[in-house]
Give the backbone structure.
Amino acid sequence: MTVYFIGAGPGAADLITVRGARTLAACQVCLYAGSLVPRELLAECPEDARLVDTAQLNLDEITGELVRAHEAGLDVARLHSGDPSVFSAVAEQMRRLDAAGVPYEVVPGVPAFAAAAAALKRELTVPTVGQTVILTRIAQRATAMPPGEDLATLGRSGALLVLHLAAGYVDRVVEELLPFYGADCPTAVVALASRPDEVILRGTLADIAGQVKEAGIVRTAVIMVGRTLGASQFRDSHLYSAERDRHVC
């Protein structure tokens, strides 16, 4: 049978995709990260489905659950928060399933940075201001960053930076980005994006650290730094321009 890695979205239960919900409803086993995935989503599972909270399981134990379900002839939903393509630890699970000969598919979900942008009511790519978005994190207790992906190197690009897993180290983020973006650079932090207890902070590199500490935000948040966050005077895109020849592909 098949393992389905499903992006559960950023938090709100109704932000799972239609395909994700339909797949979840067809699987007899569901593994989910209890600390991140909204429990309301589990209502989509069949009534007799086996539900496994992976919050306290290690990689070997998770893989064991997936392999055993496959051997029993059961489809498995592996629910991950956000989208499986970024910061999801899906790659190591897929590598284990490849070695075990277990088939799997990936169902994309709404990533946290997209939900954060929606909460801020901002387009992250604005004509003539910024057309590049970098998704990254910083090295702390988690796995070290590869060479050339430190904030100082990425900051030289001037692109909009979206930092995951970094709210607890906001002072370091500010310190390392100030030389490249300047104290007045628009900065935002969105915690628990799309959830009822969502928190939105807007400011600059000069004051965002204080706001984060005052709000008590240490996790489940993204930090965004870049000029497009505050852009208001910019040229309209060519896409809808009256001067565009719509008869040319």
